[in-house]
Amino acid sequence: MELSEEAPGLLGWVLYVAGIAALDSDEQIFFESALRGALVREELEDWTAAGNTLGGFLWSQNTCGPSAAMLWEAVSMTCGSM
């Protein structure tokens, strides 16, 4: 069984948390690319859907929300269809 079947959204959550930690670093572009792929696979096409998925895991909107929204903007700007 694949991870996506056992815990849908977990990969996206991991990439969001890592992407937030990598903001303004040399690794940021790697996490943006990986997150973009995960969002496409999980068919999360807007911030509301992504936020709902993230909220199913350990997540604090007050702490993570603003940085996650910035990461969403970076990912969706480079993806075009999001």
The end-to-end distance, rounded to whole angstroms, is: 28 Å
Structural class call reads mainly alpha
Helix content: 55-70%
Strand content: under 5%
Low-confidence stretches: none
The main pleated sheet reads as: none
Number of helices: 5
Overall domain count: 1
**Rg:** 12 Å
Shape: globular
Order of helices and strands: HHHHH
Average pLDDT, all residues? 84
Per DSSP E runs of 2 or more residues, the count of β-strands stands at 0
Topology at a glance:
Layout: H1 3-6, H2 10-21, H3 28-41, H4 47-54, H5 61-79
Provide an overview of this structure.
With 82 residues, this protein is mainly alpha-helical. It has one domain (3-79). 70% of the residues lie in helices and 0% in strands. The chain has helices spanning 3-6, 10-21, 28-41, 47-54, 61-79. The longest helix has 19 residues, at 61-79.
Keywords:
globular; mainly alpha; 82 residues
Short recap of the structure:
The protein has helices at residues 3-6, 10-21, 28-41, 47-54, 61-79. It has 82 residues and is an all-alpha fold. It has one domain (3-79).
